[in-house]
Amino acid sequence: MQPEVPLPTVLLIALGVLTVGLGAWALLRRDRPAAPWLRYLWTFLAVLNVAAWWSFVAAVWLLALFSFRTLREYFSLVDIRLEDRWGILGAYLSIPFMTILIQVDWYGFFIVSIPVYAFIIVPFLVVLGGREAKGTVFSIGAIDFGLFLFVYCMGHLGYLLLFRVTWATLFIGGVALANAVEALVIGDRPISVRRGVGMLAIAVPITMAGAVAVQPYTEFALGHSLGIGALIPTLVLAGSYTVTAIERDLGIAPDALAPGRGQVIHGTRAYLFAAPIVFHYIRYFLEE
Question: Angle, nearest 10°, between helix axes 274-285 and 165-185?
């Protein structure tokens, strides 16, 4: 029998306590870079509760707006040419295109929407708007990469939300727990092998225990709950490590984060690698 209290509400309360505690800890340490991921955790929790209590359609379009904001911040930081505006417009238009596919549950088209169709159309638009060939390869690569990472990867969370709100909530909660451990163990220091192993040694048991605790809501078998619990912090660490290098290349300073200057990218980096892989794990093994 399903519990009476929806899982998003349960996690909203639990993660609210976590947020207050970590926020107080961050203020005591004057650790400003810890704030972005806490802020965007609440954004994702709001999306979950909109889907649970009101409308999946509204929730998935909120995610689309969030993807637009992240992609816009990325484009404001990457060194692309003025004549690439047609390619950038094509990338922005890919967001509602992909979101509609999620809304109507057209998985076959969704899965190739960005890595096939957008990746063909955007280079054409870049060349169409370009006055000279120099810089074309970089512009195409930069636009397509941003579209893949900040729109397509995040879009998998929207599709997971379509399957079940409880499954998306398990994912968000697992990422939040892993992110909290990362902030406590690693913080702003470089992610080394020793620190990464230390973070996983703490985070994996916690997320595995959390996944098992919400089994009555997700209805996953014990083995799959443990597998997802172990998978999430591993992917969070891999995503944080990779996007940290991207942030350095874009000139994002962890001690000077602000809207439009890397705050959104920094605050959501933990979700980018985890969302598509957890989605495909659930779809392959567990979708009914």
Answer: 140
Side chain identity at 269, as an amino acid letter? R
The two three-digit tokens of residue 276, written as one number: 């598509």
CA distance 254 to 248: 9
Q: Could you report the per-residue pLDDT of 52-68, keeping only the tens digit for each?
A: 888 899 999 999 999 99
Residue 110 CA: distances (Å) to CA of 14, 66, 94, 119, 160: 33, 18, 11, 13, 13
Contact status, residue 177 vs residue 203, Cβ threshold 8 Å: yes
- 243 in Cβ contact with 121 (< 8 Å): no
Q: Calculate the dihedral angle through the C-alpha atoms of 12, 13, 15, 16, rounding to the nearest 10 degrees.
A: 100
For the beta carbon of residue 9, count every other beta carbon within 10 angstroms.
Answer: 15
Q: Which residue in 270, 269, 271, 251 sits closest to 261, CA to CA?
A: 251
pLDDT below 50 — which residues of the chain? 1-5, 31-34
Q: Domains of the chain: which residue ranges? A: 7-285
pLDDT digits (tens, 9 = 90+) for 6-48: 566 656 655 665 666 665 555 555 544 445 677 788 888 888 8
Q: Quickly list H helices, 30-55.
A: 35-53
The full DSSP string for 65-96 is HHHHHHHHHHHHHS---GGGHHHHHHHHHHHH
pTM for the model stands at 0.86
